[in-house]
Amino acid sequence: MQSRLSPELRQYGLITGNYWAFTLTDGALRMLVVLYFHQLGYAPLQIALLFLFYELFGVITNLVGGWLGARLGLNRTMNIGLGLQILALALLLVPVSWLTVPWVMAAQALSGIAKDLNKMSAKSAIRLLVPRQGPAAETEGRLYQWVALLTGSKNALKGAGFFLGGLLLAWLGFAGAVAAMAAMLALVWVFSIIMLKPDLGRARYKPKFTDIFSKSRAINVLSAARLCLFGARDVWFVVALPVFLASEFGWDHWRVGGFLALWVVGYGLVQSLAPYVTGKRAGRVPDGRTVFAWALGLTLVPAMIALGVGGESYPHEILIGGLLLFGAIFAINSSLHSYLIVSYASDDGVSLDVGFYYMANAMGRLLGTLLSGWVYQQSGLVACLWFSAGLLLLAAMLSLKLPRWRKSLAERE
Q1: In angstroms, what CA-CA distances link 367 with 140, 177, 391, 401?
Q2: Tens digits of per-residue pLDDT, 225-262?
Q3: What's the rounded Cα separation, in Å, for the pair 390 and 388?
């Protein structure tokens, strides 16, 4: 069957499968670490610190990784990411006495580097693989659909990975679960080295290290909006929400983890359907105006949740219902952003633009994570929700400066 597919589709399938396998182990590893170290008696703050380098190194990796991808090729950066993830898993296959906070932080730092190399490579490759036949609007619509499918399926699988991590921990124990994931990923790695196109994404020129900073106004604006968008999600989702569900609603760890895993799966499914929600069937291509409208709509959700949870009537129902609505609209926003960065990126050295953009994404996650713990500790969940609404409003205002496609597409016909 593979022989009947075009070369572009075969490469897209290989990259997607590679990305899926990595994402499944990434989600499972996160849940394994949280549950296992909770069993060992680690305090919540200690467990949170285990992931600090994971997020911090995402900022650095996306900048440097985009430059490496342009010089070496995206297949190599993707395979380096897989190799580093296998090494990160191997570092956890040591006696329990070695599993100190610094040791696990180092392993998580490697895993964070691996994840962002893999993601940057997969997202950049789509720009080069999407078929360019037909009118410009048709090509852009196809690109949007491919990006949405890859991004949405990744997040659905990350949620599935949360379940897999808990299942493997119960079935095989910590060491057995880590060893099984490392073995599976090693098989994917060998297959990827053999099958991926060797020069995919390599720039025709040798980019200088200073080229890691984007010179495109549209990409700079979109990156700033992305930072605000993901900061707005994580300022209440990462620390404040799980702690609130456990302390105020009385949910146990399995209920909290299971609910958030289902939320991530649903979020990913909505991302995959984003092109149909935003007008692909009618032939409309998203642009800056589309992003502004959806960001402004999302701004209202945390504000309404804050007002509802702060009152005395139905706080449980308002929070859970609001969270589901937030997830659906946020998924559309994220999918629109993911499409636009790939569309804005230059064909030659695409990973430089994509890497810079996902550096801003990682900074937003890091900022949101730190604010989530600090604001919740100081003022509670309602304050986190108002911070979220403020960041989303800023993202919407920035989106007003993004280009409109109608004129530019007409010029390309």
Answers
A1: 32, 31, 11, 23
A2: 999 999 999 998 877 888 888 788 888 766 777 788 88
A3: 5
